[in-house]
Amino acid sequence: MQKKVATGKIYLGGSFNREADHQRVGRAKEILAKNPTIAKVHFPFDYDFVDPEEKNPEIGGQRSMTWRVGTFQNDLNGINSATCGVFLYDMDILDDGCAFEIGFMRANHKPVVLVPFTEHPEKPKRMNLMIAQGVTAIIDGNTELEKLAEYDFNWTPYIPVTGYGIY
């Protein structure tokens, strides 16, 4: 058995629009902090870019070009400095940003652990082919979240997506 060393630098991606998202992120951070193979967790909302010229950005919805460029570049920097991505993936409200980040990580030959969540576990599970085949491992967010504490982020073993209808 190999010694576990804290070398993993995680990019923690996911939606952050609803209170449920905030709770998931908080819980995931707590669990990842227990993992002996992780040195750092980068969650992009912890490093929010602020445009000092932008007035009341929460009102009106249109963000400044400075904010858009700064936020995009900060997220790409976080992905580029990571050794692995962990994505809290909302299966009820799909997030194009997460899909882009997953694709960007894989295009850069970085492993991705997908952690799908749903508030409707009674419904049949369905996943897009590109997400299902694009990720390195899947850990069910509703039933297996604690496995993030033991997953080996030094080796990032493959765990295929199963149990989903793929479209």
TrEMBL record:
Pfam families: Nuc_deoxyrib_tr
One term of GO molecular function: nucleoside deoxyribosyltransferase activity
Domain of life assignment: Bacteria
Alphabetical UniProt keywords: Glycosyltransferase, Transferase
UniProt EC number: 2.4.2.6
InterPro entries: Nucleoside_deoxyribTrfase
Signal peptide: none
Protein name in UniProt: Nucleoside 2-deoxyribosyltransferase
Annotated source species: Lactobacillus ultunensis DSM 16047
